[in-house]
Structures are given as C-alpha cells and as structure tokens.
Amino acid sequence: MANGGEDFSQFDISKEEIEKLVAEVVRYVIFKTHQNLGCPIKREELVHLVTKNYSQRNLPAFVINAAKEKLSSVFGYELRELQRSRPALANLGRSSQNSVADPKSYILVSQLPPEVYKKYVEDVNTAHLTGFTFVIVSIVHLAGGKIPEENLWHHLKRMGLFENDVNHPVFGNIKQALETLVQQRYLQKDKVNGPEGNTVFYELAERALDGPVREKIKEYISQTWDFEVFGLLRRLVYRV
Predict the structure, then answer these.
(1) Residues 172-227: tens digit of each pLDDT
(2) Measuring CA to CA, which residue among 80, 83, 37, 81 is closest to residue 179?
(3) What is the signed CA dihedral for 107, 112, 113, 119, rounded to 10 degrees?
(4) Closest to 93 (Cα-Cα) out of 194, 200, 202, 197
(5) How far is CA 17 from CA 12, 23, 70, in A?
C-alpha cells in the first residue's frame, strides 16, 4: 500500500486489517460501478464499509485514499470525485431532483489509452448506450447547455425515439434510458416555475462537462457542422 506504512499506525490497527479494508472498498467500487451502469457511488457508502467495524475518526479518508491508489496502480482506473457545478438555472425558481443535500460521490474513469480500452475493456453489448449518451449530450450542448424537455423530445422524435416507447428494439424504455443519464450525472433535470406554469429543463451535469468528454463533443460537432447533424446522430444511435 503506497505511502501507507508511515501513517497507518495512528489508527491502532494492524497493517493487514487496513489492507483488508482497502481491498473491500476496491471490490465494492468495481462491483457497484458495473451493477449500476456507472452511476456515481456516494462517499457515505464507502465510509460505511470502514466504520461498520471501526470507529477511528480519520480511518475512512485514509482507506479511501489508499483504495484510489490501488485502483490506479493495479486496475488502471481513477476514482474521481464529481465536482458539482452551479447550474445555469439556479436562480430561476428551480426545483431539482438532484439538488437536495448533494453528497460527495465518485465515479471510475479509465486511465488506459483509448485504443487499449476499446480493444480489451469496452463491452460491445453496451456500445449502443454510449451512442445514446453521446446523442443526448450533443443535443443539449448544441442547445447551449440546457434545453426544455419538450424541445429535447422534439429532436429525439426526429430520430425515431419516442417518450412513450417502452419496447424500443435497442434501448427498451426510452424515457427510462433518458432518466439513467440523470442518475449517471450526464444530465441534471430541473423544474422551473414561471408565469405560464412549470417547465422541465435538462442541463449538462458534471460528467458531460468533464474536460475530455466536452472536447470530444466539440470536435465531433466541428467536423460535422456542414452536414445534417441529426441525420448523423441517428446513424450513430442505430449504428447503420
């Protein structure tokens, strides 16, 4: 355990016990990421793994940091803390399904070169979900980073994706597929109170605003600016 030998003695437990805790956190993060399709893992979940049998005050932070090092050095993953961005709709009387007591959370991000990840790690059975994510994020990006729900569904209908379709041959329940992007923190969903009633907006969230993701979107859009954008996005969704 890197840099751990000089510090763990402060907790009055053995090195073996700490290594066991680190391994438990690593296993939990990898399993939970796979089980929940990459949805963020709350810090309190990882803290609970440590504190269920130990009460030392600074032990959870120590173990989580050690788990980060192991995930990077052994598995090639960065355990990245999501940085909450201030929504553009923050001062417009919004009601957000994500804004109540937002806890710290983590996601796993591959540190492998893209070509290596694609060849040895990427699951071809979930490639269509990656395409769907890219389509939605691109639409919201082109709309300026936020878009009314009604307008988003208007664009999706042009690609044959309908709100009431629960048996799509590729995506299944389309509305649930969109909500999954909210849970994964690619999007934030807000209800804004206005003079004409409530309007639901989708806005880019932390993962969509991540540097590499944002740059890929900008690069793609710049390369296809002279073409029929939504036609290209449709081909991406259906992989034709």
Answers:
(1) 999 999 999 999 999 999 998 878 778 999 999 999 888 777 787 777 667 655 45
(2) 37
(3) -100
(4) 194
(5) 10, 10, 16
